[in-house]
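One-letter codes give the sequence; each number marks local geometry. A record appears below:


***
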Amino acid sequence: MNGDKVFNAVLTAATALIGLIVVGIFITLVQGSIPSILKFGLGFLASAQWNPVKVEFGALPFIVGTLLTSTLALLISLPFSLGIAVLLGEYYQRGRLARGLQVSVDLLASIPSVIYGFWGLTVLVPRIRAFEIGIHVTPYGVGIFTSSLILAIMIIPYSSAIATEVIRLVPREMKEASYALGSTRFEVVKNVVLNYAKSGILAGIMLSLGRALGETMAVTMVIGNNYKLPKSIFDPGNTLASVIASEFTEAMNPIHLSAMIELALVLFLITMILNLISRRIIARLGG
């Protein structure tokens, strides 16, 4: 009993500490954003102008860039993440192939983002430029699409790892009952395994989405750092994280600095809102 009490006390203290940190970050961001909020109001979210010389700041291009890159990266990575999870969780739980694939996925998660960015610039950008020439669009090479591809590779380990573990937890009795009714292995995976594990799979997807929303260095290197509202996925752009990384140290005007902090606040709120929505969806699926 004493051990249980100690564990519960430590767990409660850790939860309270995390809550205080989150609240502290939020308060700090709000305080730093007050000059920008007072000057631009809600127009900050709707304006597409970003001109430090004229002290005109609007977050719309960066919000659009953030949502575009993250959503596109999620759509690109989802088939690969789900395929890896099914392969490791259902078909090849042991053996050389499983170990080799698991090591490769873990290695993807451990590569620093600056290396992804460098690889994107030297390897991916020239090929994207050639592809854009082939489909008759402006061959920037860098842009929303390129950064989405980089992000897709970076987030595959997060969603696939959680999905793999959840798939392995599917009760054997449920699968054997489905086989007894004449189902093929594909039908068992489709109708039993994925259906049982859907809430865990969604949790992994939302974790990877949060990773994509906050990625900075790799995106900054390949997105093109354009301050205009992107008109297509092949245009250069900026995300909330990339513009903060590229401009924060150069913000000398107090309003400019406050606007940068407000961008961080917007990113914080977007991440929190998506997290709350995902928790409700996961709870509903789990129920």
